[in-house]
Amino acid sequence: MSKQQPHEFLSPVWRDGIFRGRVVFVTGGAGDICSAQTRALVYLGADACIIGRKVEKTEAAAIDIAKVRKGARVIGIGNVDVRNFESLQKAADRCVAELGSIDFVIAGAAGNFISSIAGLSPNAFKAVMDIDTIGTFNTIKATIDHLIKSATAHVSPNAENLPPGGRFIAVSATFHYTGVPMQSHAAAAKAGVDSLVNSVALEYGPYGVMANVIAPGPIEGTEGMDRLGSSGFGENVVTDEKGQQLRPSVRGGSPSIPSGRWGTVRDIADATVYLFSAAADNVNGHVLVVDGGAWRRQGGFLSAGDNPALQYPGFLLAGAASSRKKTASKI
Ligand code: COA
After folding, report:
1. What value does the mean pLDDT of the chain take?
2. What is the pLDDT of residues 147-180, one digit of tens each?
3. Which residue's alpha carbon is nearest to atom 12 within ligand 1?
4. Which CATH number fits the domain that encloses residue 195?
């Protein structure tokens, strides 16, 4: 059996087999969020091809994901950088040769770290733009013909209730809605991603391809939040006038998030299942924010946290540049 139990990556509302006969191609598929998205789709009947830079990590994730359903076929293709179009195209070709099609695509590969503009070299900014924005463009270019073919072959809704085909999701973020300090690179890159998906929705909707964005907020237990959440980022203790600790919310999580808790990979997997399912047959060019309302309170903070060390603009005036720069104050 896989290391993860179904309730950890999927809510109990979906029907078994709703993606039977469909293949999903996922960049960044070994990562915390995208592996949960893939696991959920495979659990519900899909086969999958996951792409990553690290060979061992990607292949191991594929083997683990395949364990969620007897007979599942999951290929892990490592040594593929979304910045390199040729390697991505080869991976897409291999996916179709081995699994028969590409019906769904998740552009999930991303790069991020904490740095102010002062701490960013031109190459650092470019690296994130290249991975997120150009990587998403490359993913679209390498797979769009397959998606058109799938959308043509699997028109939905249909009388037989067969699963749809030709669906695209980009995993984005919410930084650019308000602006977030120390995230200029990721915010610019994800704004580009959202914009690209709008164009896909417009240009390929007439071919039956539905293209949407999922924008996660802070997700607990992910590499991204480990990176963005140093110095106790996101922790919050609320006390009454006698210094007694109050429960931050009915759900026991962060009071800085309106829903009262951090996101989970399951939240994002559920959103993915919805957008690829027949329930979302006419959802195109949409941004589905899955963050408990967190972005409505972000901006001054680094993100959703209320850590005093990250209060705006004190940490900037104190000279914070990047966790990587030896001379910068630690974030
Ligand atoms: N602060 C400031 N600059 C940084 C940095 C940091 N924390 N980390 C990397 N950089 C800079 C590097 O110094 C380099 O710039 P330079 O050539 O001017 O010195 C530039 O970014 C590229 O770094 P490099 O490590 O050569 O690039 P890479 O392609 O191997 O890695 C990154 C890309 C930087 C995005 C890296 O963080 C990465 O691979 N991340 C993938 C995983 C990830 O980010 N997951 C979280 C998703 S939310």
Report:
1. 89
2. 999 999 999 999 999 999 999 999 999 999 999 9
3. 124
4. 3.40.50.720
* Residue 112 belongs to some domain of the structure: yes
Question: Which of 286, 235, 274 has the alpha carbon at shortest distance from 256?
Answer: 235
Catalytic residues: 172, 190
Provide the 10 A C-beta neighbour count for residue 63.
11
- Using a 10 angstrom Cβ sphere, with 0-12 exposed, 13-18 middle and 19 or more buried, the burial of residue 12 is exposed
Best residue among 32, 123, 190 to mutate for probing ligand 1's pocket (most ligand atoms within 8 Å of CB) is: 123
Comparing CA positions, the residue from 31, 13, 41 lying closest to residue 103 is 41
Q: Is residue 56 part of a domain?
A: yes
Query: What is the predicted pLDDT for the residue at 328?
Result: 47
Determine whether the shortest distance from the Cβ of 320 to ligand 1 is under 6 A: no
pLDDT over 50 (residue 44): yes
The CB of 226 under 6 Å from ligand 1? The reply is no
Ligand 1 center–CA 234 separation, angstroms = 23
What does the DSSP 8-state code read for residue 170?
Answer: E
Q: Is the residue at 251 inside a domain?
A: no
Domain assignment of residue 281, given as a range: 6-229+257-300
CB contact at 8 A, 16 and 44: yes
Q: Is the pLDDT of residue 204 over 70?
A: yes
* SS3 annotation, 268-298: HHHHHHHHHCHHHCCCCCCEEEECCCHHHHC
CA 20 to chain centre: 23
* Probe residue for ligand 1, chosen from 58, 121, 222 as the CB with the greatest number of ligand atoms within 8 Å: 121
Q: With respect to residue 42, please indicate whether it lies within any of the assigned structural domains.
A: yes
Q: Is the distance from CB of 236 to CB of 254 less than 8 angstroms? A: yes
**Domain count along the chain:** 1
Q: Is the CB of 54 under 6 A from ligand 1?
A: no
The pLDDT tens digits for 212-268 are 999 999 998 888 777 665 433 344 455 667 766 655 566 656 667 889 888 999 999
Atom number, ligand 1, closest to the C-alpha of residue 323:
7
